[in-house]
Amino acid sequence: MLPESFSFVNRFRKYEGNPIIRPGTTEYTADCVFNPGAIVYNGEVRMLCRCINLNMHAAGNNWSVSTLVWARSRDGLSFELDEKPFLAPDENSPYPGGFEDPRLVYIPDEKLYVLTYTGVEGIQRTPGMLALSRDLENWEFIGECFPGRAVSITDRKINGKYWAYYGNSSVFIAWSDDLRTWQTDNMPVIKPRSGHFDSILCESVCAPIINDDGILLLYNGAAGIEYKKKLSKGIYRFRESVNDHCYSIGWALFDRNDPTKLIDRSEDSFIKPELAYELYGISEYTTFGQALVDFGGRRILYYGCSDTRIAAAIAE
Question: What digits encode the pLDDT tens for the residues 49-66?
Answer without folding.
Answer: 999 999 998 777 678 999
